[in-house]
Design a protein that fits this description.
disordered C terminus, single chain, five-stranded antiparallel β-sheet, 2 helices, mainly beta
């Protein structure tokens, strides 16, 4: 089991993460891999939990490309049963790395027929170094635990990793705990640099 977000009660604070298990510490709970195996579209992907290549915590999600179709929505990695409120700004932000540069697309969509598409957007993953990617948009519909938030991936078969995936009301600066997260990262980076400097003398 994993902690439920405030959206289960129909309310949340601005900046509060509405994605469950976005750090993948509970493996793939609350997430779905959709590819040709379910829908006959031809794309083939696999996923696994990686404990060696991580950005935060002890685990990250590795998405392995077997066969692309060239059409992004033919395969997706998605978080189910998510909510948003019309007229509010929302931000999707995540850390990712890839074996080589590749594109992924944002997919925010009703999770059943008629499959209403709410928001898209493109991200170019730059390569093997972990980098944070984000997109902010204005919601046009009220959705109560009835949409997925994820990435469409079938445009490429390049393997990539995800970690610390968040979705919240507000802009990037409004994320709860953002300053604390980056303070930890900065300290870690500083100690690494200092270690390298010391080893040269």
């Amino acid at each position: 089991t994993f902690a439920k977000t405030q959206q289960d009660f129909g309310k949340w604070k601005k900046g509060e993460n509405l994605v469950e298990n976005g750090d993948f510490e509970q493996d793939t709970a609350a997430w779905t891999l959709e590819d040709g195996a379910c829908c006959g579209r031809g794309g083939q992907y696999q996923w696994e939990i990686d404990k060696k290549n991580v950005k935060r915590g002890n685990k990250a999600l590795k998405v392995i490309g077997v066969k692309a179709t060239g059409t992004d929505w033919h395969a997706k990695v998605r978080h189910e049963t998510t909510s948003m409120r019309a007229g509010k700004d929302y931000t999707v932000v995540f850390w990712a790395r890839s074996e080589k540069p590749r594109e992924v697309s944002l997919s925010i969509q009703m999770q059943h027929d008629p499959w209403t598409f709410y928001q898209g957007g493109k991200f170019m993953l730059e390569g093997p170094e972990w980098k944070e990617y984000s997109l902010t948009f204005r919601a046009t519909a009220d959705v109560d635990r009835d949409m997925w938030v994820g990435l469409a991936i079938a445009q490429s078969d390049v393997t990539f990793w995800l970690d610390d995936f968040r979705f919240f009301e507000g802009e990037l600066k409004d994320e709860i705990g953002r300053e604390e997260k980056f303070a930890v990262d900065a300290q870690g980076k500083l100690s690494t640099t200092w270690g390298r400097l010391k080893s040269q003398f």
